[in-house]
Design goal:
It contains 15 helices and ten strands. The chain has about 375 residues and is of the alpha/beta class. The strands form three sheets. The protein has a six-stranded parallel sheet, sandwiched between helices. Helix 2 packs across helix 15, helix 9 packs antiparallel against helix 10 and helix 13 runs parallel beside helix 14 (about 335-340). The chain is globular.
């Protein structure tokens, strides 16, 4: 039975102004100086210990990596993370595609989040013109400077736009050196400029809520931020501009950049907050690559790092400090615990609200010596 792929160029897309957005940046942002949500004394003790270890890691120049899911942003932690980056307590941020979509929508539109059920039934879930168009614009323009997904989008938000070359310049560069490493990126941008009628020169996109963007604050503080999306996972696929090659190229660069921070994790800290799948999956592959390269050059594998995993699930009622449960125990199938428990460092699990954890950790870092 023959099957034809969808012609996404025929998708009807809509302006964000027509969407009923369920969350607003002005409503969700947490004041870092407010009192954090209460947590159990067991978790509070772990958070205090985490703060002490972060301070020690930074004193020795080790990486402190925060891997987070989109809900950390949606729960209002952007201002707290900005303070932590400004203080030098976080050296790397990593998120998934959804984390960038909500990030950009808050920064530009001041609102985000939609009803998936209602949108799918009407055929308009995720078909928002500005979101897909701007994120593709960012990563395609950033690729010409060798930038990945996270830095490209953070830069666009922080600088309120990008500057595009002319199509004639792109064609000249492609023809002059077809084997150049940037040829494919130039061709992707050339195609998009023609199909989407993007004009060359300065593209001004004002972001009135850039203070609500984790990516923009990371770019401002020169903290690497990497994005680890799946092709077809995110609403930026629901638009004629969709380019798997552009997204994949940006994500490839980010995976390599992520590995650079993993290479600095000796005595460092990993915070995995609300990332049940992406975080553990990307981390286990990256640390294997790092160890592979280290062993070839006569170095030891990554060691003496600590991993703090935060999620709302109960962790399978298993004490992960005692090692991995047997396959007959349901806890064995909790990927966010199991994978990190295998990564060579001490893994601690906290069942906790994600923004509450970050807020309490910020307070603990301010108090730690």
């Amino acid at each position: 039975m023959p099957v034809r792929p969808l012609d996404l160029s025929q998708l009807k897309v809509f302006p964000l102004a027509q969407r009923e957005s369920l969350t607003r940046a002005d409503d969700i942002l947490i004041n870092p100086d407010a009192e954090p949500k209460p947590c159990s004394e067991e978790n509070a003790a772990l958070i205090r210990a985490c703060a002490v270890q972060i301070k020690a890691a930074r004193a020795r120049g080790a990486s402190v990596m925060l891997i987070y899911g989109a809900h950390l942003l949606r729960n209002g932690a952007a201002s707290i993370l900005e303070r932590m980056m400004a203080a030098g307590w976080i050296t790397h941020l990593a998120t998934n595609g959804a984390g960038t979509i909500h990030d950009w929508e808050y920064a530009w539109f001041g609102a985000s989040t939609e009803s998936v059920e209602m949108g799918v039934a009407g055929g308009h879930f995720g078909t928002w013109h500005e979101t897909a168009s701007t994120i593709h614009l960012a990563i395609m323009a950033g690729a010409l400077d060798g930038l990945g997904y996270g830095v490209s989008l953070g830069k666009l938000i922080h600088e309120d736009g990008v500057t595009l070359p002319t199509t004639e310049e792109l064609m000249r560069l492609i023809a002059a050196d077809p084997a150049h490493p940037l040829t494919a990126a130039r061709a992707d941008l050339l195609h998009a400029m023609r199909e989407q009628n993007w004009a060359p020169g300065r593209v001004q996109i004002d972001h009135k809520w850039k203070h609500a963007s984790i990516l923009a604050q990371a770019y401002r503080h020169s903290v690497p931020v990497t994005v680890h999306p799946g092709i077809g996972y995110d609403i930026i696929s629901n638009h004629p501009v969709f380019s798997g090659s552009a997204i994949g190229r940006a994500a490839e660069w980010d995976f390599k950049l992520f590995g650079g921070s993993v290479d600095g994790l000796d005595g460092g800290i990993v915070l995995s907050v609300g990332s049940a799948i992406m975080g553990p999956q990307v981390f286990e592959k990256s640390i294997s690559c790092v160890n592979n390269l280290r062993l070839q050059s006569g170095r030891d594998v990554v060691k003496d790092h600590a991993i703090f995993v935060v999620d709302l699930q109960d962790g399978g009622n298993w004490d992960w400090t005692k090692g991995e449960p047997p396959k007959t125990n349901p806890a064995y199938y909790l990927r966010f615990c199991k994978s990190y428990s295998r990564m060579g460092g001490a893994m601690h699990y906290l069942q906790n609200d994600n923004a509450g954890f970050i807020h309490t950790l910020y307070r603990a870092l301010r108090a730690a010596h």
